[in-house]
Amino acid sequence: TTTYTLTVTANNGCVGSDAMEVVVGGVIPTNLTLQGITILSGVTNCYNALKEEGILVAQGESPKFNEKAFSELNHTLQGIFGENNAPVGLFFVPTYPTGMWSFQYGIKGNCHPKNVQNVDEIRQFVADQGLRYYNEDIHFATFATPNFVKTLLRK
Known about the structure:
Blueprint: E1 4-6, E2 20-29, H1 36-49, E3 50-59, H2 67-81, E4 88-92, E5 100-107, H3 119-129, H4 136-141, H5 147-154
Parallel strand pairs: 2-3
Antiparallel strand pairs: 1-2, 3-5, 4-5
């Protein structure tokens, strides 16, 4: 079984100028089924802490290594943020058991990271920061999911 602990360092229900644009949460596998209320409460607190155009980013699970936890986290996010506002981004870390890992998003409003309009802003940011592992192609490819992941997200 898998348990999740989501730690949120924000005031519950922040609004106005105290609300946040981005909340980054570390989701640590432990046992979602037994602690479902805890993860639901944590994600709900994140939702409340966000501005109207805010984004929650949670490090998820490997869709291959822990399919159940991966799916349950996404369905929790969909239940709070809406089905179309809980995309999954995949990335690869050679030192992780399966290599494939995920970021799971909760998007409040219309600030969807898949809908970046000004690619030149990404290019400029990459150049200004001297980034070597990120560019506009990587940004958009992050949201491409293989068929087995699409199946997990529909479960």
